[in-house]
Structure formats: C-alpha cells, structure tokens
Design brief:
The chain is mostly beta strands. It is built from one helix and seven strands. It has one helix at about 30-40, and strands at about 10-15, 20, 45, 60-70, 75-80, 85, 95. The strands form two sheets. A five-stranded antiparallel beta sheet has the order 6-5-4-3-7. It has a two-stranded antiparallel sheet with strand order 1-2. A hairpin with a 7-residue loop joins strand 5 and strand 6. The chain is globular and about 35 Å long.
Length: about 100
Amino acid sequence: MAIQFSLHIQQIACQSGEVMWLGTKFTKEQKKAMYEARYVGRTVELTEALDDPYTPKPVGARFHVTGIDDELQLHGSWESGGSMALLVEHDHFKVVE
C-alpha cells in the first residue's frame, strides 16, 4: 500500500532530523515516507556528538543511510566503521550528500 499525501503548507523547521510543519500532525507512516524520501541513499553528518557508551560518534561523523525502519531509525554505515542507527527525531544531523 503506497502512502500518498500532499503538502500545501510551509515548512518552519528541520533541525535534528525532525520535519516540522506549521499546523500539521503526521502519522508515523507519513513521517516514515517523508524521511525515507529525504534520507535514504544520502549521507548525513552529525551536528551534535552521539554519547553512546559502546560506539561514541563525534560532531562531523558521517553516516551513509540505506534504510529506515518502522520506529523511524535510520540504518546504514558510518564512514568510521560500525552500523549504529540514528534516531530521526532525536539525534542531531544534517544532509551533506
């Protein structure tokens, strides 16, 4: 089942991977479709360090996104090694490629 929606409103913020639109609430399925279109196949760069006890990542670390799951986690690989997921609505990053 394909999810279709149209956006006729102004985007007001896009920080830390979260898309926020003026006066609109999206379902998790709609968010997944938007994030998939925005991030999958691209490289993102951390704008805030990930303080993970096992695999910390510094500001500037790059992640190649290959997919997104139902919990809105980006999956892929880090240029420095590893495959720890990014949380779209929690972690701070920007698209660089």
